Amino acid sequence: MLCSCPYRYSTCLCECVWDSDLLWTDFHQKLVDHALISMDTYLGQFPDIKSRIAKRDRKLVDYDSARHNYAAVNKGKKKEGIKITKAEEELERAQKVFEEINIDLQEELPSLWNSRVGFYVNTFQSVAGLEEKFHREMGKINQNLNDTLEKLENQDMSRLVYAAYIHNVKAMHDYNANDSDELELKAGDVVLVVSYENPDEEDEGWLVGVKESDWIQHKDQGKKGVFPENFTQRM
Q1: What are the entry keywords (predicted)?
Q2: How many CB atoms lie within 10 A of CB 70?
Q3: Above 70 in pLDDT, residue 221?
Q4: 3-state secondary structure of 155
Q5: Mean per-residue pLDDT over the chain, rounded
Q6: Which of these, 87, 221, 96, lies nearest to 165 by C-alpha position?
Q7: Residue 34 contacts by C-beta under 8 Å, 6 or more apart in sequence?
């Protein structure tokens, strides 16, 4: 929300920068949580799958070798029962190992392949949603920033006394102005103390400022003047 008081403009600018930083941080964290971590988890399956496929290929070679060995033993002119039995056992063992791995992969690979569409669609939709929200919120911040800068640009610098005042004091006694450059005070008046425009004009024991009531009513430094410091008390 834009500030209506000039002395709040610098605060508005700081809030815009702060909100922008928070929005970027939040967007980055959600992007990591909803996209990058999910993507890493999904892609993390592939090294294991690749390793198991390579193992299946090696076991297929072992299985083929056992089949050829069994066939060769059976075709021999002199069939030896012990060799045939051993070759048959090796064939069964090689076949069992290969088929166990192969069956598992036949069940997992189609499921993994089919899951890619849903995973990528959900991930990209999530990223698109995060980007849409980020740009929408950033647009609001930019609009507030532009509005504040326009207000500052159009604001007469003399009306920024609230942003530039040093401190404020309260009049403890009435003071009747003797010259046109002096500020007349009534006990209880609050004065916004500002710096002298020309340091050479500064007199010890005298301050320059504008009464808070005049500032609130007129927003004008033209009503500022000098006054004795010992008639006031710092707040």
Answers
A1: Coiled coil, Cytoplasm, SH3 domain
A2: 20
A3: no
A4: coil
A5: 83
A6: 221
A7: 123, 126, 127, 130
CATH topology of domain 6-161: Substrate Binding Domain Of Dnak; Chain:A; Domain 2 (1.20.1270)
Q: For the chain, what's the residue count?
A: 235
Q: What is the amino acid identity at position 39?
A: M
* pLDDT tens by residue, 45-63: 899 999 999 999 999 999 9
Distance CA 197, CA 199 (A): 6
Tell the residue number behind the tokens 């403009």, with chain if given.
9
pTM for this prediction: 0.45
* 117-156: pLDDT as tens digits: 888 888 888 888 888 988 888 888 888 888 777 776 655 4
Extract the tokens encoding 193.
Answer: 């103390």
Architecture of domain 172-234: Roll (2.30)
Strand ranges for the chain from DSSP E: 167-171, 190-194, 206-211, 225-228, 232-234
Side-chain-side CA neighbours of 223 within 13 Å: the count stands at 16
Q: What is the spatial distance between Cα 20 and Cα 150, in angstroms, rounded to a whole number?
A: 19
Distance between terminal CA atoms of the chain?
30
- Could you count the other beta carbons within 10 Å of the beta carbon of residue 221? 20
Instruction: Give how far Cα 57 sits from Cα of 47, 88, 96, 142, Å.
Output: 15, 21, 14, 59
Q: Per-domain residue ranges for the chain?
A: 6-161, 172-234
pLDDT at 159 over 80: no
